[in-house]
């Protein structure tokens, strides 16, 4: 369930503390980091061993990486070549490194390219932290230094780093580090997280080669650089200035590692272990990310425990079997969905329709229990959805023949013709359809189809009073109502507003609804959708 | 405790050596035909003869061009303390006129308290520099101008540093002629040089704060390692891919970090471990990180490519996935949304990427994608995957 929780929380806490610009210096470091230090670094000398164990135990399955990083960081005050730490998302790169620094008690500056989303902000954030500058109302939330160009940044950085390192050195002279809060050593480490995002920035190639060459440009031995990236170093290769750094790789967790991680912080370990026996292997085949697995497991575990009266009981073999037979039907459907809609199990669906519906668009193949899902949409919205789907699927040239009362036979003829075509040609057409995706359509066409199918639906079954309502709406205030519905469908992402057509200048729309969902909606309206679909 | 302390000191010493290029390139510059001597000769002669000179230092990245230049400059600064002003510009930082001029002015003012009024007379000269800087900036190479300042018009030494051997071809004709034949090539160190370098970097000094007998023992062990055939194999294996000095330094850095502080001496294992940790195969690692479903998607894409269907997107991959599953039913058949998530993971991992940057309005399912792993890599990866389903290996083979 919340296994990943404790590292996550601490990580966030450290991130927070590192983003408040106080990490790298004497007094402030003491203040800020004291709460953590009490747990991890209470002793100065004798506690070293223990805290290392704490570090290891808080990151199961990361022992090798922690040891490797500690070796590369080296003893106090030893210069370091830049490190390049990489691995998939949610493999614990950032949290491991930050915890290592907590363990080592060394000063560092952390900047993430995710929060600092441009070069200028990144530069200014680093400089702010170095200068212990706090953005607040008094200074109008401005940075200490305005710094846009890399050349300015290097000059500022050099100056600021020197002064900080001087302070660290003088601190050491004043008292040999006896208190726990004082940073040890006079090395300062700069940590740049989410480096892969720089590739999407403006002037990314110069920015990247600048970042990679920062160590050579600075030429300062007291500075250690650590880059953290989600993607491997080979994705940075380009013909411009990629300098290799010392690689540290965080592999994705194996099944056993995942079990260890998920077992952490579980109140009833035996019960959870028997639960993991059932679910971990099948789920691991689809994804190996801790975050995704833990969110998938937390509701499942609740379901698993449902027959139990006492959650603290230790399951025996017989009970495990019983739990399993109760639980088994839930595994397959949950494997095939990527998020959980809490209202789904309770059939009185009172929750917001957007999530339910969006969930069901994605979960279009899940099967029978979705057939009963109730669409909380007004009838006209449903018709609008169907007409958007038709407009996206069918070629515009066929509209007349499809919706004309005399056109029915015509379309059937076309269908036969299509089937007479050689298989090869058909395949090519199918391929094209797959590649192109849903087509776009202007608003006018949507409204025309909408009117056609609502009137057609009326003729299908006269006594459906919903349709009477609709007709009343449709005939009277059609435009305003329908446009309102359209905008809400756009908001729910069923219909996407595309770019405007360069020739006509009007906005074009595109329907994202899958065929299954459209058919389901049509079924709920008793609307014969398949008759209107042009089959290629 | 004693050895540990000593070992730590030794480690710090060697690590700081590895991080200071000045130390590393010292021994390589002794001989008279080294780049160091040549460069020093050219620059010092132009200082003494008060003539105009330009030199290009060319060589692969990490071969110590800047380090040698810095060595020369620091020596010359000692020799002629009053007559030299060094202005260091970097193509990465100062590739545009504005920042370059500003930087030149800044460095000049800082070093010599030059008045800004002098900038005007300096302008013609700097115009020339900027022109070249722009060209070199295109190649994003470090450009260092050592400008001799006592006659601003006639006597300037321009030293350009680039890792592109054709850097002079990038220059304007007028500029290129100035570099005429003064090019210094930096070649990777020879085998003997590597050996000398290793000894130079790794052996401890006998006359330092380190205990003498420890240093002696350390050096003795080191000698035996250096003489070891297996060690030579490791080194030559490593330098096969890239034999520049920086590359070697990175390797040594990891080896030194691996040093066991308890025993206090380097061992062959340290170097072996360093080799395995620095020679990475990122694509293989990525494939190993995949889940089974992600592998299925990769294999399906590969099959599409083998069939010479050169453009495909998620939907067509899904179609292939379905047909694969129809012919070989397994339990690994998942709903489209789960597959889409796996697909997104692959995109994030950059095992696949979008074929073009257009079509941002389209949803991911319909954007064209392509594989960025080769057939061999994928096959290799599947074979070494821990519990790879046999069916996948079968599917990729045909």
TrEMBL record, chain A:
<keyword id="KW-0235">DNA replication</keyword>
<keyword id="KW-0547">Nucleotide-binding</keyword>
<dbReference type="InterPro" id="IPR027417">
    <property type="entry name" value="P-loop_NTPase"/>
</dbReference>
<dbReference type="InterPro" id="IPR047088">
    <property type="entry name" value="ORC5_C"/>
</dbReference>
<feature type="domain" description="Orc1-like AAA ATPase">
    <location>
        <begin position="59"/>
        <end position="203"/>
    </location>
</feature>
<dbReference type="Pfam" id="PF13191">
    <property type="entry name" value="AAA_16"/>
</dbReference>
<dbReference type="InterPro" id="IPR041664">
    <property type="entry name" value="AAA_16"/>
</dbReference>
<feature type="region of interest" description="Disordered">
    <location>
        <begin position="401"/>
        <end position="424"/>
    </location>
</feature>
<feature type="domain" description="Origin recognition complex subunit 5 C-terminal">
    <location>
        <begin position="377"/>
        <end position="533"/>
    </location>
</feature>
<protein>
    <submittedName>
        <fullName>ORIGIN RECOGNITION COMPLEX SUBUNIT 5</fullName>
    </submittedName>
</protein>
<dbReference type="InterPro" id="IPR048866">
    <property type="entry name" value="ORC5_lid"/>
</dbReference>
<keyword id="KW-0067">ATP-binding</keyword>
<feature type="domain" description="ORC5 lid">
    <location>
        <begin position="272"/>
        <end position="324"/>
    </location>
</feature>
<dbReference type="Pfam" id="PF14630">
    <property type="entry name" value="ORC5_C"/>
</dbReference>
<dbReference type="GO" id="GO:0006270">
    <property type="term" value="P:DNA replication initiation"/>
</dbReference>
<dbReference type="GO" id="GO:0005664">
    <property type="term" value="C:nuclear origin of replication recognition complex"/>
</dbReference>
<dbReference type="GO" id="GO:0003688">
    <property type="term" value="F:DNA replication origin binding"/>
</dbReference>
<dbReference type="Pfam" id="PF21639">
    <property type="entry name" value="ORC5_lid"/>
</dbReference>
<dbReference type="InterPro" id="IPR020796">
    <property type="entry name" value="ORC5"/>
</dbReference>
<keyword id="KW-0539">Nucleus</keyword>
<feature type="compositionally biased region" description="Polar residues">
    <location>
        <begin position="1"/>
        <end position="26"/>
    </location>
</feature>
<comment type="similarity">
    <text>Belongs to the ORC5 family.</text>
</comment>
Automatic annotation (TrEMBL), chain B:
<dbReference type="InterPro" id="IPR032705">
    <property type="entry name" value="ORC4_C"/>
</dbReference>
<dbReference type="Pfam" id="PF14629">
    <property type="entry name" value="ORC4_C"/>
</dbReference>
<dbReference type="GO" id="GO:0003688">
    <property type="term" value="F:DNA replication origin binding"/>
</dbReference>
<protein>
    <recommendedName>
        <fullName>Origin of replication complex subunit 4</fullName>
    </recommendedName>
</protein>
<comment type="similarity">
    <text>Belongs to the ORC4 family.</text>
</comment>
<dbReference type="GO" id="GO:0006270">
    <property type="term" value="P:DNA replication initiation"/>
</dbReference>
<keyword id="KW-0539">Nucleus</keyword>
<dbReference type="GO" id="GO:0005664">
    <property type="term" value="C:nuclear origin of replication recognition complex"/>
</dbReference>
<keyword id="KW-0238">DNA-binding</keyword>
<comment type="function">
    <text>Component of the origin recognition complex (ORC) that binds origins of replication.</text>
</comment>
<keyword id="KW-0235">DNA replication</keyword>
<dbReference type="InterPro" id="IPR016527">
    <property type="entry name" value="ORC4"/>
</dbReference>
<feature type="domain" description="Origin recognition complex subunit 4 C-terminal">
    <location>
        <begin position="197"/>
        <end position="381"/>
    </location>
</feature>
<dbReference type="InterPro" id="IPR027417">
    <property type="entry name" value="P-loop_NTPase"/>
</dbReference>
């Amino acid at each position: 369930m919340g296994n990943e929780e404790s590292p996550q929380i601490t990580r966030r806490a450290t991130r927070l503390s590192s983003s408040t610009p106080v990490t790298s210096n004497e007094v402030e470091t003491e203040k800020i980091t004291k709460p953590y230090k009490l747990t991890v670094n209470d002793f100065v000398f004798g506690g070293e061993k223990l805290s290392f164990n704490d570090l290891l135990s808080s990151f199961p399955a990361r022992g090798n990486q922690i040891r490797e990083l500690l070796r590369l960081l080296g003893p106090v005050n030893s210069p370091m070549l830049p490190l390049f730490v990489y691995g998939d998302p949610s493999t614990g790169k950032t949290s491991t490194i930050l915890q290592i620094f907590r363990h080592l008690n060394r000063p560092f500056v952390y900047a993430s390219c995710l929060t600092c989303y441009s070069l200028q902000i990144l530069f200014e954030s680093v400089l702010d932290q170095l200068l212990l500058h706090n953005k607040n109302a008094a200074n109008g939330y401005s940075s200490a230094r305005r710094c846009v160009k890399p050349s300015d940044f290097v000059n500022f950085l050099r100056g600021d780093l020197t002064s900080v390192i001087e302070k660290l050195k003088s601190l050491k002279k004043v008292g040999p580090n006896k208190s726990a809060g004082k940073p040890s050593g006079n090395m300062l480490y700069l940590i740049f997280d989410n480096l892969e995002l720089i590739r999407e920035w403006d002037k990314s190639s110069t920015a990247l080669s600048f970042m990679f060459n920062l160590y050579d440009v600075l030429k300062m031995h007291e500075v250690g650089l650590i880059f953290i990236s989600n993607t491997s170093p080979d994705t940075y290769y380009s013909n411009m200035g990629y300098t290799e750094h010392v690689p540290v790789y965080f592999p994705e967790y194996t099944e056993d590692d995942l079990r260890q991680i998920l077992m952490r912080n579980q109140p009833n370990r035996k019960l959870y272990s028997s639960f993991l026996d059932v679910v971990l292997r099948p789920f691991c085949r689809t994804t190996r990310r801790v975050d995704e697995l833990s969110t998938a497991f937390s509701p499942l575990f609740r379901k698993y425990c449902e027959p139990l009266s006492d959650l603290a009981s230790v399951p025996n073999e017989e009970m495990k079997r019983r739990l399993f037979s109760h639980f088994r039907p839930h595994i397959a459907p949950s494997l095939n969905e990527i998020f959980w809609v809490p209202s789904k199990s309770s059939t009185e669906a009172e929750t917001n329709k957007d999530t339910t519906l969006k969930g069901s668009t994605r979960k279009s193949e899940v099967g029978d229990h979705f057939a009963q899902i109730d669409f909380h949409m007004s009838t006209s919205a449903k018709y609008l959805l169907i007409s958007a789907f038709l407009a996206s699927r069918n070629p515009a040239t066929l509209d007349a023949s499809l919706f004309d009362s005399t056109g029915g036979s015509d379309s059937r003829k076309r269908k036969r013709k299509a089937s007479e075509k050689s298989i090869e040609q058909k395949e090519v057409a199918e391929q094209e359809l797959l590649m192109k995706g849903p087509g776009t359509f202007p608003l006018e066409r949507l409204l025309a189809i909408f009117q056609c199918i609502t009137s057609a639906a009326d003729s299908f079954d006269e006594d459906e009073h919903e349709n009477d309502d609709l007709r009343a709406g449709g005939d009277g205030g059609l435009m305003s109502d329908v446009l309102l519905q359209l905008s809400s469908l756009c908001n729910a992402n069923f219909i996407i507003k595309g770019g405007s057509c360069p020739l006509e200048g009007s906005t074009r729309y595109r329907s994202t609804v899958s065929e299954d969902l459209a058919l389901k909606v049509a079924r709920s309206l008793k609307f014969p959708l398949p008759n209107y679909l042009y089959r290629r | 405790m004693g050895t540990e302390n000593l070992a730590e000191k030794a480690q710090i010493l060697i690590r700081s050596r590895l991080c200071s290029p000045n130390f590393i390139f010292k021994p390589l510059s002794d001989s008279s035909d080294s780049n160091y001597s040549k460069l020093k000769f050219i620059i010092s002669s132009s200082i003494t003869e008060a003539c105009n000179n330009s030199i290009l230092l060319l060589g692969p990245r990490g071969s110590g061009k800047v380090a040698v230049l810095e060595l020369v400059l620091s020596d010359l600064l000692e020799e002629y303390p009053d007559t030299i002003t060094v202005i260091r510009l970097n193509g990465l930082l100062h590739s545009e006129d504005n920042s370059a001029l500003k930087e030149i002015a800044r460095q000049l003012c800082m070093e010599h308290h030059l008045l800004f009024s002098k900038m005007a007379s300096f302008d013609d000269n700097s115009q020339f520099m900027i022109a070249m800087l722009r060209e070199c900036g295109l190649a994003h190479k470090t450009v260092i101008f050592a400008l001799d300042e006592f006659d601003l018009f006639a006597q300037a030494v321009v030293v350009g540093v680039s890792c592109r051997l054709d850097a002079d071809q990038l220059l304007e004709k007028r500029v290129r002629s100035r570099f005429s034949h003064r090019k210094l090539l930096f070649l990777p160190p020879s085998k003997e040089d590597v050996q000398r370098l290793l000894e130079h970097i790794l052996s401890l000094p006998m006359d330092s704060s380190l205990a003498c007998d420890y240093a002696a023992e350390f050096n003795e062990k080191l000698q035996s390692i250096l003489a070891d055939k297996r060690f030579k194999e490791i080194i030559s294996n490593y330098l096969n891919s890239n034999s520049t000095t920086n590359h070697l330094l990175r390797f040594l850095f990891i080896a030194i970090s691996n040093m066991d502080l308890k025993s206090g001496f380097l061992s062959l294992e340290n170097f072996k471990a360093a080799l395995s940790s620095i020679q990475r195969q990122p694509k293989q690692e990525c494939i190993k990180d995949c889940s089974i479903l992600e592998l299925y998607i990769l294999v399906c894409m590969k099959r599409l490519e083998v069939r010479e269907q050169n453009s495909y997107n998620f939907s067509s991959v899904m179609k292939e996935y379905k047909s694969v599953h129809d012919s070989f039913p397994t339990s690994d058949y998942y709903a489209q949304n789960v597959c889409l998530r796996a697909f997104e993971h692959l995109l994030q991992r950059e095992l696949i990427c979008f074929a073009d940057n257009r079509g941002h309005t389209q949803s991911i399912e319909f954007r064209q994608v392509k594989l960025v792993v080769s057939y061999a890599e994928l096959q290799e990866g599947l074979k070494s995957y821990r519990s790879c389903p046999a069916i996948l290996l079968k599917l990729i083979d045909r």
